[in-house]
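Section 3.1 - Work completed
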Amino acid sequence: MKLLIVVRNFYPSTLGGPSLTLYWLAKALLNQGIDVTVITSSDHVPVNKVAFDKWIELDGIHVYFASVEESDSFHCPVTKMMKRYIKDMDVILLGSLFYKPSFFTSVWAKLYHKKVIWSPRGELFPAAINNKRFKTFYVKVLNKLFGKRTLFHATSEIESTYIKQYFGEAKYYILPNYMTLPERATRNPHCPYLLFVGRIAPIKALDKLLEALAISKKFRESGYTFCIAGGVEAQFEIYYQSLLILISKLQLKGKVEFLGSITGKKKEQLYADAYMSFLVSKSENFGNVVIEALAQGTPVIASKGTPWSSLNECEAGFWVSNDSQSLAMCIDEILMMQPETYQRMRQNALKLAENFDVERNISKWIHVLES
C-alpha cells in the first residue's frame, strides 16, 4: 500500500505537535510494510537540518520539503509536487482542513478516485472557528464537495462531535495521537518547579494559570518556580507582552521563568525534573505535551477544555476547570501532597503513557487505511 501525507509541517519542523505526531505515525507504518511518502513545506524547518526542493529519505520515509515564501499563502510548490505523484498513491492523508494545498489535493484525489483521510486536528473546535464567517462558509463548501467521499480522523470523542456538526453523516473514526515514547531521563528530585511546555498563545490560557499561581498561598510561600518552555510566534507577541505585564502586576517576578523553546533530550529532562506539568488550554483536540510529561513519570494538570479525563480516572494527575480559583485550589492540593501519594501518581503517569505508544497501536491505523 502507498500512502501520501500532505501537510504544512513535518519533522524536523518546530511548529506544533502534528509535525511530530505524523512523523512517528509514518515511521511506525513504514515498519509494518506501508510505503509512506510525505509532501510538506519548509515552514519552521531549521536551516541546514534537511535539504529543500529535492526528495530525501528521512528514516526511510520519502519526504519532499518544498521551499515556500511567507508571501505565498497558497504554498504553491507543495501543490505542484502533489499533482505529480498523487496518481501513484492508494490513500491520501491530509493534516489540516484550512491548509490550502489540502483543498487542491482533495480535488485531485476525487479526480483519481483516491481514498482520502482528513485530520482536522482541532480546527473545528469553537475556539478555532471563532465565529469567523469565512471559515464557516469554507467548511460548508468542503462538506458539499468532499464530505460524502472523505473519511475523517478525530483524536477524541469531543472532536468527533464537531466533525458530525459540520459534516453530518460523514464517516469518521476516533484514534488518539500516538508517539514513540522516549527513554526515561534520570530525575533530579531537587528541582522544585512547575512546568508548561507549548506555544505561548492565547488559547493556552497562561494568563489564567498565572492568576492561579498568584492566588495559591502554598505556591507563593514555597520555593517552587513556574517554568514556561515555548517559543513566541510573531502573531502572539502582544499576548506574550501582556503576560510579562501580568507577572509584574501579580508580583510574581522571580517566581516565573521563560525558558524559550526547548527540544530533544533537554526537553525530556525538563519534563522528568518537573514536579507537575500543566495544560490548561481553553480547548485542545488532544495535547501531545501531556503524553510527553507522563512518559517521564510527571503528573499533569489539564483543563476540561482538553480530552484528558483519564488523568483523574488513572490518578495520574488532575482534570479541572481552567478558571483561576479552581486551578489555585488544585495547585495548593498538589503542593501539600504526601510524598508516597505523589510517588504513586508518578508511577500511574508512566502506566497511562504506555497506552499511547505508537508501535503498540499501529494495527489500528492499518485497519483504517485498509478498510
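Second construct:
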Amino acid sequence: MLTAGQILKTKQHKDIHAVSTEMTVLEAARLMAEKRIGALLVMKDNKTIGIVTERDYLQRFAPMNRLPSETLVREIMSSPLIHVSPNEDAKSCLALMAERQFRRLPVVESGNVVGLISMSDMLREIPAQQQFVITQLERYIRGDMG
C-alpha cells in the first residue's frame, strides 16, 4: 500500500520552507512567490506550530482590510498543525485532505516535519501505484513472473 513517506520520496522538490510567527504577511507572500510554493511552515521557539498557505492569505488576510506589511503570519496561519506520519497510507491522507479541505499535508516523523505532500502529489502517485499493481497482476495471470 502506498504511504505518505513513499510519496515524499517521489517528489522532485523536497525543500521545506519555514517562517517565524513574527514575519509579516507581505514577507511570507514574497517568499512563497520567490520559491514558487503555496505553503510555509510556521515556527516558534524552533518548533513547528502551524502552516500558512495561499488559501490562508485569501480567506483570512484579504477580508481584514489591513496592510500586509503590518499583519503578522501568526494572525492568519492555520494552527495547530494537522499532520500525518510517513507510514500513513495514501488513501487515509487523501481522505483527511478532503475532509479538512487541505491542499497540503505535513508529514512528521519523531516530532520533526520531514516534508509536505500536496493534493497534486497524491493524485499523481496513486494512479501510478495502481497501474503498477495492475501490471504485476497481469504478468502473474499470464505466468510471466520470471
